[in-house]
Description:
Layout: E1 14-17, H1 44-75, E2 79-85, H2 91-102, E3 108-114, H3 119-125, E4 131-135, H4 144-154, E5 161-165, E6 182-188, H5 195-198, H6 200-204, E7 208-212, H7 224-234, E8 239-242, H8 251-260
Parallel strand pairs: 2-5, 2-6, 3-4, 3-5, 6-7, 7-8
Antiparallel strand pairs: 1-4
Helix pairs in contact: 1-4
Amino acid sequence: MCSTCGCSDEAATRVSLVDGPEPVHTHDHPHDHDHQHPHQHQHQHEHGTRTVLLEQDILAKNDLLAAANRHRLTEHAITAINLMSSPGSGKTTLLERTVGDLAGRRETLVIEGDQETWLDAERIRATGSRVVQINTGAGCHLDAEMLDRGLLELAPPDGSLVFVENVGNLVCPALFDLGESARVVIISVTEGADKPAKYPYMFRTADLVLLNKIDLLPYVDFDIDLCLDLIRRLQPDVELLPISATRGDGLDAWHSWLAAR
Length: 261
């Protein structure tokens, strides 16, 4: 149970190497829930304190696991890029293009995070890259333990590049350190230009912001100057790259950024 965002549950999380048909997941509840509450609950302050302490415990445990992940990745010269965005920004399309472009230069592997389905993982597998699917069930983000399990399943070789496509939303993924080498936030011109102001923590923690789908600028009402200004106010030193994952604009700069990592 994640008190930070209210998502759950750990039992429903599945980590699978995509090399065969999707397994059928069942979650039985053999126990009865016959638990009556004849008494009234009037402990608002106590419950509030418990919630804060639980949140602190969850984040502290996650940070310890993230530190262990980061140490292991560094020890084996593995670069892990945490890709975060709202749904539909073009993360998977960018990954398909990037994995294809980097083929033969550096071994590139992918960890896919979604609540359900193997759809994105199958798209990545079609590129020839090895991929692990993490289905979080009701969870709205990946955490350090999930990355650890994904890496164990994927077994990336020394010196490889691992992309982690986080669950699509702009809130909780920003709160959980995975132990990644860098954080990349993608925003597309089909979203509102005010997204950085509405979700500041996501952009404040970014190492790079990719403005995707710029090929659609002539057809959408998107104030690119406002968006970039809002990002700069939150993170003055963050790198910003306008790209089109479908048309290829700006991808050479994206590849250079990855190479520098």
